[in-house]
Request: fold
Amino acid sequence: MPRLRLRRPPLRVWVWSAAALALLLVAALLWRASDVAATDSTTAPTAHVPDSPPDADLAQAWSTTGDPLPDAPVESGRVMVGGEHGITALDAVTGEQAWHYTRGNAVLCDVTAVDGVAIGLFRTGDRCDEAVALDADTGLYRWTRNVNFAADVELSSTDGLLMAEDEGSVVLHDPRGNGKRWRYRAPGDCRLLDAAVGDTGVAVLQRCAAGTVQLRLFDGFNGKEHWTRDVATSPDAVPRLAGADRLVAVVVDDRLEVHRAEDGDVLETFDLPASDGDPAGETLHQAAAGSLALVWARDTVWALDGSTGRARWSRPALGLPTADDTAKVSPGASSVLVPEEDGFVRRDLATGDEVDRLAVDGGLAEPGLTQVVGPVVVYRLPDRVLGYR
Reply:
């Protein structure tokens, strides 16, 4: 019986095999270091929000910490919370996690939520270089965009506009897609102090040569300049923008200065108590409610006429309320839910009169922003979010 002779493979086969194994090893290592391997995400079904208002007596139902936090964390019935490596969305009613998106190989620079999406800006090196948008309701992926911002970038948003502010410039994007709208960089003899995006456009404050402070308003969608006005201020003052909804409001020294959106003229000026802290770090809020601008500064909320700037009413408050339809209470009327020391007070939007009072067990200790989601009042504080039910 003839013996079988085993032939050794040619050298080229060994070379090809070794090369193939090397490629597989490199591919495996690259995958392990890639965004895909570093990303951990979940999704959720559509949020269910009960069709019922908050009770007259409220107690804290849930609490969560976050850093960073969106200016207004509620979007599509979810509560958006940032962490070191990503975004978590909570069920607004229960406070339980609905979905999350984290990147083990990146740090979250900032997060905002608008137009049904949550947008996170991530840093993989020295700069914040990648923006990711997720469906706020379900956590499903929407889009990714490569960007180039400093590590101290701040995000803010309003309907149809996503603004990033960093080291002397502002950049506007489309929050629904990944398109860049326009960019503004302060001139060489100016330094950007603050910026705000709202339904009037994009307002910027800048200090220029000889100490002049300028307030400028640009169209939010195309960047066209609407107007520029000088702001009278003391040399060591730190002017801040309250916002750019209905009106453009600036806090400078110890006054609230209200500018008309159409031409920048000063409509009204309101005296403020002296700041008890660093003016550069004080919290200011502004939002639109019907034809009014709601402005909160130094423990007072003003309801300002959007055309004249005159105060329809003002009340001591712990923070900024959000508009709430009260047709069930008074047909055709609207109200705002104002945070005060002992709870939330529903006030008639036109007059400021008390409609009803939602007492909170233990009261409210810190200034914040209210948002109503069905039977829950979501209260956003600087470092955490609380749910009262």
Summary: The chain is about 5% helix and 50% strand. The domain at 46-271+282-388 is CATH 2.130.10.10 (Methylamine Dehydrogenase; Chain H). Residues 11-33 form the longest helix (23 residues).
